[in-house]
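Incident log, structure service

09:12 report received: a user says their structure output differs between two submissions of the same chain.
09:20 pulled the input from the user's history:
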Amino acid sequence: MRRCVVMAGLLGILPGQAMAASGQHASAAGAASSTVIVPITLTHSAGGVLNFGTMTVGPGGGNVIVTTTGTGVAVGAVTLISSGAVSADQFTVTGDANRNFSVTTGAGYVTAGSSSMLFATSPSSGQATLSASGAGTFSVGGSLSVGSGIAPGVYHGTYTVTVTYD
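09:34 re-ran on a clean worker, output below:
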């Protein structure tokens, strides 16, 4: 047995060891690529506004809901006045043709002096596809919370809209 171990040691073939020929190596070329597309842009349509309309408020308050098609509905002790037009907001998206994109909208406040009302927003579609010419549109509706003791006035505010390629 001793002779086998000595012979294995002399030959360099002990178990668990592998010997490569000196200077032997291998290499290969990898591949890399990149595609640059047209940046996505968002434009607020001229004259577009999420308008919750003109209203009166009774005890208990309520909500005004504006759909993404621009229809207004009063809930609770809120009454919409017919002369006060409601409307959904409008946006245009441009970018890479036929590319999918996502839309997110944030909440906001409308204020008049020291009075404010919270509103939530929702886009007409959370995901859409740009046309073959690289254009798309969407609208934004929302829900305004109207407190019972809210002061009369003309209220204005803003909210954030973000579009992102999928």
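09:41 both user submissions now match this output. Likely a transient worker issue. Closing.
09:42 reviewer note: The chain has a mean pLDDT of 90. DSSP finds one helix and eleven strands in the chain.
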